[in-house]
Amino acid sequence: MYPEDIAGSIAHAKMLAKQGIIPEEASAKIIAGLEGILADLNSGKLEIDPAAEDIHMFIEETLTDRIGQDGKMLHTARSRNDQVALDIRLYMREENGQIKQLLKDLVAALCDQAEKYKASLMPGYTHLQRAQPVTFGHQLMAYAYMFMRDLKRLGQMEERMNYSPIGSCALAGTTYPIDRVYEAELLGFKAPVANSLYGVSDRDHVVEDLSDLALVMMHLSRLSEELILWSSWEFHFVRLADAYTTGSSIMPQKKNPDMAELARGKTGRVYGDLMAILTTLKGLPLAYNKDMQEDKEALFDAIDNVELCLETFIPIIKTLEANEKAMHQAAQKGFINATDLADYLTKKGMPFRDAYHISGQLVALCIDQDTVLEDLPLETYKGYSDLFEEDLYQAIDLHNCLATRTSLGGPTPESVQKQVDEVRGKLAEEN
């Protein structure tokens, strides 16, 4: 967190000079020294000493070595307790900006593919059983909306986090005439934290961020699971680009969806990071306790893994190809128009339960005869009910079954396009 630590220290030096707590000349030397340290760390000219107590002391000691005794004035009116509380908020704000952009890019990729496949018929599932007709675009937009909620949650968390703890000092503030509002404004915060004990003790924002990241990973894991299933020969609904699959060491026919599997696996790791910090914090009295340094390892790990998975998934989605023929065949053999058959009888005046029973009997007959509802002759249908007429074939045509599902949010191509347009509009607002 050295960039955040240096940014916080520069703001602190400016505030100390403004308030007359340290001389203007000392503040200018401190700021110039900190800027030099930042440049040298970024370029690799300066390396962080692993023997240093922590990053805060390393920077302060390096500063004093470079500019002399004036460097020792920097820590006036602050503690490492509020210093680290500040640094972690600055770090989270920076990293969340990157994660939010990755989520936007992923949603945009999902929208592009959903628009491309908005009319591609496939079976929708419940209990992993073929259920009712949807389109591949409709399925992808379900995930787009999940990730849009993740984007919103991260933004809301950031708003709640965007208050500065600096000036809380060790726990009880300071006797120096500091200006916490000015320092908070310099660092882009909405305002200072209102209670000094709260300022150094609170890690709710870390828990909330990890919770939000766990949800991101949960959604990625569900999408991963679908891609793993869909790319198998048992489904063969999608083709994953070779760049995101691997072969077997002994089976030349294999094309393993390793990237999706790794994302699914890393979900458990991010869950573990969330549980670790919850467990660490649950019994801590106010104010600062050394246990709280555990927040950073969990947070860094979760952020790194979420960013890695999102960076990988964006091109996976962009290069994804749907096997529309296999999807359509699965829809036909899944009897996903059985509900529409029952609805046909209901609209002719038959009670739904009776219609449901007859529809089930006809499905059983098709399974026994290895055929589909569309291919049964009208005479067979009439053997079950005189209400069946020639128009039933139009009612159970899969494309008609899809087209008649016109309720808001449904799977028709027109509805999917509206969803795509809506989400793209929201992305534009975010930008």
Outline the fold blueprint.
Elements: H1 2-18, H2 24-43, H3 55-67, H4 80-116, E1 121-126, E2 129-135, H5 136-161, E3 163-164, H6 180-186, E4 191-192, H7 196-201, H8 204-230, E5 238-239, H9 258-281, H10 294-318, E6 321-322, H11 324-333, H12 338-347, H13 352-369, H14 378-382, H15 392-396, H16 398-403, H17 413-430
Parallel strand pairs: 3-4
Antiparallel strand pairs: 1-2, 5-6
How would you portray this structure in words?
The chain has 431 residues and is mostly helical. The chain is 64% helix and 5% strand. It has helices at residues 2-18, 24-43, 55-67, 80-116, 136-161, 180-186, 196-201, 204-230, 258-281, 294-318, 324-333, 338-347, 352-369, 378-382, 392-396, 398-403, 413-430, and strands spanning 121-126, 129-135, 163-164, 191-192, 238-239, 321-322. The strands form three sheets. Strands 1-2 form a two-stranded antiparallel sheet. A two-stranded parallel ribbon has the order 3-4. A two-stranded antiparallel ribbon has the order 5-6. Helix 6 links the parallel strand 3 (163-164) and strand 4. Helix 4 (80-116) packs antiparallel against helix 5 and helix 9 packs antiparallel against helix 10 (294-318).
